[in-house]
Amino acid sequence: MDNRITQLFGIKYPIVQAGMVWTSGWRLASAASNSGILGIIGAGSMYPEVLKEHVIKCKQATKEPFGVNIPLLYPNIEELLRIVIDQGVKIVFTSAGNPVTWTSFLKAHGITVVHVVSSVKFALKAQQSGVDAVVAEGFEAGGHNGREETTTMSLIPMVSSAIDIPLIAAGGIATGRGMLAAMVLGAQGVQIGSRFVASEEASVHQNFKEMVVASKEGDTKLTLKELTPVRLLKNKFFHEIEDLYNQGASREALAEHLGRARAKKGMFEGDLEEGELEIGQISGLINSIKPTSAIVEEIVSEYKYCLQKIRNGFFDLYDLDNVQ
Predict the structure, then answer these.
(1) How many domains, in total, are found in the chain?
(2) How many other CB atoms are found less than 10 A from the CB of residue 213?
(3) CB-based contact 15:176 (threshold 8 Å)
(4) 208 within some domain
(5) How far apart are CA 218 and CA 281, in angstroms?
(6) Which CATH number fits the domain that encloses residue 127?
(7) Average pLDDT for residues 83-108, to the nearest whole number?
(8) Considering only Cβ atoms within 10 Å of each terminal Cβ, which end of the chain, N or C, has fewer?
(9) For the whole prediction, is pTM greater than 0.90?
(10) What are the φ/ψ torsions at residue 256 (nearest 5 degrees)?
């Protein structure tokens, strides 16, 4: 499966485990990297010293490449970047901000930089800033999302036609057939988040993992676009937000009700009523909690099986349950 993404990161399979808040600690990142994909530590929910601890433990747990995802709007951004540099991290995924601000700084320290975007416009800006690759994330994705509401099926071919650097597809991908579809649309790799929420190594609460597995089609919705768009599982907190919208609540009223640490309360502490539960639409297809290595093996096996079937002229992939 050698291509531009495997060569860029030095990995076996062109798959990236997304750096998700409260989910992607050193255990998940190292397990992902040890499985042949790129593991990512999610710094968005970490104080600088916590990130340093996770990077050190990840280096001890894997000799394979791994990266760190850093939201550029993080208040302690300079401290986070200093830790990444001091600890010798070689790959950084940036998000939620302007890549022009820090890309040249990171690359001057020998770091491979990838930026997450949700539109062609921002993919072009990221390319112009000098990043090595972009992640184009469709509307289906969990967590914080783009305001454009462009689906992955539409976004990937548009971005692929517009840029020259490697493209990683994200949003609504959790299976081998989803990975194959993204590659056909023009991506050279995929970033997968929600599927790894339901992994044994994910640092989120077991309650949240089980709710993800139990979720069905239609159980998530993008909301809070006036603040930062986020896709959530529907629970008591979500319905309270919906009620505020129905009452014509102001941006300030929405922010007040959201408060602080809602995602930590739901995802990390397991409060399924009052917490914010970030997950993608693909959660309706996730029905088990497995070790990360088993998830990667399942995705890769299904990808290879579907690709071979198509090469052999069989376009009806009804028998996916028979994948070995």
Answers:
(1) 2
(2) 14
(3) no
(4) no
(5) 8
(6) 3.20.20.70
(7) 95
(8) C
(9) yes
(10) -65, -45
